[in-house]
Structure to design on (753 residues):
């Protein structure tokens, strides 16, 4: 793949190399209680991607242990999503509920070992007895029950003899454990609701902590990837498998950061609310961050997988800019889809000196993409243009049609306005124009200069279509709930006009509508006689500009909006200077579109970026620092306390792995307060990440020396102590050791005997 490997792939590789496992087996384990969202896509891409990359397999397992919330239709939605993303999970979908009997047997085994007991405290008492982070908990008196009594009660719980909440099964671990999760965690609870697969066969259901590790084990999973919130559950995962003494090979859990995206909610609970309360039309509403929603909106599987690859897999939580996902679909569609002309708000233009009609050959694709195909564009004396593309009193910099300024009709002729026809209210209802016969696109000998080309359709042959202009569902960066919905997330244009080929030839399902964005034939409502198009995404990021406008202090260079000017609809277009910068940043510095655009559109940021580049060539890291950290600082402060060269130095520290990205934020904060050089801050505060094995090895040796008992246990086969040693080493270095390297070295040292 030629990309930098993430830490999970490194672990997998090492495990295969060392012979710990002969084949990698992963799983994607959704709970069928809602439609999968883009966060699940990250997990799907990771689990299936690792299996694919290392010749293993990935199971699709429904984690169906809560009968109250799960439904078969969600299973289908999950299967659809995984299939649509292009993955294959073998012969059949697996279910935790298939293992209910085996899980029950394992629980009985734990009871017999004295490692699990039936507790009869109330939910509240259980919470109270658990203690706090600073105080140890107490064990329930019911923990004294004999094995026989426990077995009897557990069996009767299963049969449904007790009410919900009357009893639970708990592991007997340690009520004083520092990790609160280890304070006798619950293994089973009573639920009388019918389960969508097992019906009323069961009255007890296993808890996640019990079911997950054992289901992984039963399926021969080797690497069990879950999100960071489960870090503390790992100890239970290991405890259960170790206590039961399951024969190897056994699975291990690894945590990665979950995906968060701005302007988006990704909690199933909140998504369910949007559906149930009718804020959206359903789970597949094109504004929903569900896979079904993106699919209906017109996103391609490729664009979503590219996004997942771009964001990568890391150990620290962060928030991804939704603009990055939008850039992925633009980049995917840009070279692929045919370009056609559609007019959303038609204004009639009568061409006075044109007679008859003709058909103009026009390519569907611009010449710089590797696709070919042309259509015929009907042309006659009556056409429609976009109302916004004519301005009677144009603001400065208006490049389209005005009473004095001609414009090119894309693929066709140049026209000039002769007369503006208005109704009684003074509204423009028609333009009378002339065309220049020798100005036809491709064979223009007219010598007339125009500043832009606009879309148009032939009045007689254009087709009426419905266009749904979707925008971000939420209007704020960190939405909490319905109160943060964007009121303009959907605007329906009932009677837009489109050139006939788009409907009659239908060269594709996705299109670029010239100057308007990318559009998709709605898979549900589209009819040949009543076409419906969904806007997938605009051509450029219109939010980057909005956000700049919303900032309290506009950059000084920003032109004052003229009061008389009508609302300039295409304010998202870049000025020629911005455009030049944008292209340079992409071509020369290799910045992705989004980042390049953010910098190019802002004078101060672009100046800062370019100055920083003079001292260090790591453009991407610098650009990220400038677009995020520096930009935020500029909003707060008029004067910066640091110079471009200092940001360059900070970028270098990150690129060279002297500090982690997380520490970099701390360094930046310090720098913006004191103005000191980042190197100095790193040294003074001792923030340098230790990556040198020569520095780490002595620490490892010391830790091994100090823990002879654990070392012996590890070498006798208690592999879960691996984590213990890594933890001790990291602790001994004050958290500054590079965890990736510590892992590798500890693994190596432990294997030596
Ligand atoms: P939610 O928090 O949205 O309710 P969940 O974690 O309860 O989601 P599950 O169906 O249990 O949803 O998740 C299935 C898998 O997808 C799990 O392995 C989980 O770690 C992963 N997953 C869920 N949300 C995300 C996310 N935002 N980013 C990455 N992985 C995720
Ligand atoms: Mg879950």
């Amino acid at each position: 793949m030629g990309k930098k490997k993430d830490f999970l792939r490194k672990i997998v590789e090492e495990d295969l190399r060392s012979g710990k496992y002969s084949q990698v087996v992963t799983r994607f384990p959704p709970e069928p209680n809602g439609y999968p969202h883009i966060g699940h896509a990250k997990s799907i891409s990771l689990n299936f991607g690792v299996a694919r990359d290392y010749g293993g397999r990935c199971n699709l397992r429904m984690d169906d242990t809560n009968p109250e919330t799960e439904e078969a239709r969600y299973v289908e939605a999950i299967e659809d999503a995984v299939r649509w993303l292009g993955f294959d999970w073998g012969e059949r979908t697996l279910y935790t509920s298939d293992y209910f009997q085996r899980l029950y047997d394992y629980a009985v085994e734990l009871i017999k070992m004295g490692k699990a007991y039936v507790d009869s405290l109330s939910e509240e008492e259980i919470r109270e007895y658990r203690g706090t982070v600073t105080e140890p908990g107490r064990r329930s008196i019911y923990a004294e029950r004999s094995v026989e009594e426990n077995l009897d009660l557990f069996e009767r719980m299963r049969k449904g003899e007790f009410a919900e909440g009357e009893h639970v099964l708990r592991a007997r671990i340690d009520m004083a454990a520092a990790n609160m999760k280890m304070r006798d965690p619950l293994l089973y609870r009573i639920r009388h609701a019918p389960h969508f697969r097992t019906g009323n066969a069961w009255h007890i259901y296993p808890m996640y902590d019990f079911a997950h590790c054992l289901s992984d084990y039963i399926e021969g999973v080797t690497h069990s990837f879950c999100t960071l919130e489960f870090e503390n559950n790992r100890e239970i995962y290991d405890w259960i498998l170790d206590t039961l003494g399951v024969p190897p090979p056994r699975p291990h859990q690894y945590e990665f950061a979950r995906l968060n995206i701005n302007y988006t909610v990704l909690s199933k609970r909140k998504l369910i609310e949007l559906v149930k309360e009718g804020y959206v039309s359903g789970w597949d509403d094109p504004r929903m961050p569900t896979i079904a929603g993106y699919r209906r909106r017109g996103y391609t599987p490729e664009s979503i997988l590219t996004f997942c690859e771009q964001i990568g897999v890391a150990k620290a939580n962060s928030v991804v800019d939704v603009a990055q996902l939008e850039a992925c679909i633009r980049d995917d569609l840009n070279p692929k889809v045919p370009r056609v002309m559609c007019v959303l708000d038609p204004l009639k233009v009568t061409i006075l000196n044109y007679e008859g009609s003709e058909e103009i050959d026009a390519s569907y694709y611009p010449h710089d993409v590797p696709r070919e195909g042309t259509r015929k564009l009907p042309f006659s004396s009556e056409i429609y243009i976009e109302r916004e593309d004519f301005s009677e009193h144009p603001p400065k910099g208006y490049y389209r049609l005005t009473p004095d300024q001609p414009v090119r009709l894309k693929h066709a002729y140049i026209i000039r306005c002769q007369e503006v026809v208005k109704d009684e209210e003074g509204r423009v209802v028609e333009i009378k124009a002339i065309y220049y016969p020798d100005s036809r696109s491709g064979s223009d000998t007219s010598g007339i200069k125009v500043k832009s080309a606009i879309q148009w359709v032939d009045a007689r042959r254009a087709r009426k279509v419905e266009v749904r202009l979707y925008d971000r569902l939420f209007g704020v960066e960190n939405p909490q709930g319905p109160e943060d919905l964007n009121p303009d997330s959907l605007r329906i244009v009932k009677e837009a006009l489109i050139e006939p080929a788009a409907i009659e030839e239908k060269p594709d399902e996705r299109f670029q509508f010239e100057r308007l964005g990318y559009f998709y034939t709605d898979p549900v409502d589209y009819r040949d006689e009543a076409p419906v198009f969904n806007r997938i995404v605009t051509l450029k990021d219109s939010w980057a500009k909005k956000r700049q406008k919303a900032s309290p202090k506009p950059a000084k260079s920003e032109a004052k909006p003229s009061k008389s000017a009508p609302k300039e609809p295409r304010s998202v277009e870049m000025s020629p200077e911005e455009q030049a910068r944008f292209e340079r940043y992409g071509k020369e510095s290799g910045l992705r579109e989004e980042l390049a655009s953010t910098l190019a559109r802002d004078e101060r940021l672009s100046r800062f970026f370019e100055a920083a580049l003079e001292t260090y060539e790591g453009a991407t890291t610098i650009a990220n620092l400038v677009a995020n950290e520096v930009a935020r600082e500029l909003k707060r402060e008029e004067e910066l306390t640091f110079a471009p060269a200092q940001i360059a130095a900070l970028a270098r520290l990150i690129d060279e792995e002297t500090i982690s990205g997380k520490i970099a934020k701390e360094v930046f904060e310090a720098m913006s307060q004191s103005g000191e050089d980042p190197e100095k801050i790193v040294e003074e505060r001792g923030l340098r990440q230790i990556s040198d094995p020569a520095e780490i090895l002595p620490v490892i040796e010391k830790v091994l020396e100090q823990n002879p008992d654990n070392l012996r246990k590890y070498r006798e086969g208690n592999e879960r102590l691996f984590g213990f040693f890594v933890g001790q080493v990291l602790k001994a270095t004050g958290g500054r050791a590079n965890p990736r390297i510590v892992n590798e070295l500890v693994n190596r040292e432990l294997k030596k005997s």
Q: What stands out?
A: The first helix runs from residue 7 to 17.
